[in-house]
Design brief:
This protein is α+β, with helices and mostly antiparallel strands. The protein folds into 2 domains: 122 residues, Alpha Horseshoe (Serine Threonine Protein Phosphatase 5, Tetratricopeptide repeat), CATH 1.25.40.10; 83 residues, Outer membrane efflux proteins (OEP) (Single Sheet). It has a 4-stranded antiparallel beta sheet with strand order 1-2-3-4, with no helix packed on it. Strand 3 and strand 4 form a beta hairpin. InterPro entries: TPR-like_helical_dom_sf (IPR011990), TPR_rpt (IPR019734).
């Protein structure tokens, strides 16, 4: 139906949609180019182009296509906002994804699409909380040592009362795990632990260390 002249506009739209669903992306690209040249259903074609770009992994380019579809046809605003939010999720830009899901809800709060958007928004908010780049863990515990000084160099510490002391063992761990775009991963950690004896603070042990680990997601 789309190979005759003049082309049937509805057939072009259906053909592009089907090609995208069947992952025949080259075929879809060809007919999108035809539709853009002849200005066939520009809003719908912009939306389908966004879906095509998503299939190709070009999420930020897809955002532009969905934005164009929304600007050309206000009736596509809610579904376009939802698709834009999904694009930002794939790009790990969770703050923008949250904003776009919220925008989708506000378009028509009583719709089924708004219900889905709320569910995704809740999920994104939880991920934002879990993926905070800095995490700090601090712990302090106490010990009681009955034989701290078995053979002290300072004879002032040889009395029996000096052998029984309380100790404090603090530990600190700082993790830095930023959310990076693309396949890259990075983690860094600083750790400190020690044992401090009272009342003789000259007697203590401590250790600290740090590590940095860049990585790439398998498959890239």
């Amino acid at each position: 139906a789309v190979t005759v002249a003049p082309k049937i506009k509805e057939a072009v739209v259906e053909l592009v949609d089907m090609a995208i669903q069947l992952k025949k992306l080259k075929e879809a690209k060809k007919w999108i180019a035809v539709a853009e040249k002849q200005k066939i259903f520009a809003p719908k074609m912009a939306f389908l182009k966004g879906q095509l770009l998503v299939k190709e992994g070009k999420n930020l380019e897809a955002v532009k296509a969905f934005e164009k579809a929304r600007s050309l046809d206000k009736s596509l605003s809610q579904v376009a906002e939802f698709q834009i939010a999904l694009c930002y999720m794939r790009e790990k830009d969770l703050k923008k994804a949250k904003e776009r899901f919220q925008a989708a809800v506000l378009q028509d709060p009583e719709s089924d699409m708004a219900t889905f958007a709320r569910q995704y928004q809740d999920m994104v908010e939880k991920r934002i909380e879990l993926e905070r780049p800095f995490r700090i863990t601090l712990a302090v515990s106490g010990q009681y040592n009955t034989n701290l000084l078995s053979n002290p160099q300072n004879q002032a510490f040889t009395s029996s009362s000096d052998e029984k002391v309380f100790s404090m063992t603090p530990s600190l761990r700082i993790n830095y795990v930023p959310t990076l775009k693309g396949p890259w991963l990075f983690t860094a950690q600083y750790a400190f632990s020690g044992t401090f004896h009272h009342p003789f603070c000259l007697y203590y042990s401590k250790e600290c260390g740090c590590s940095c680990n860049p990585a790439e997601t398998p498959g890239h």
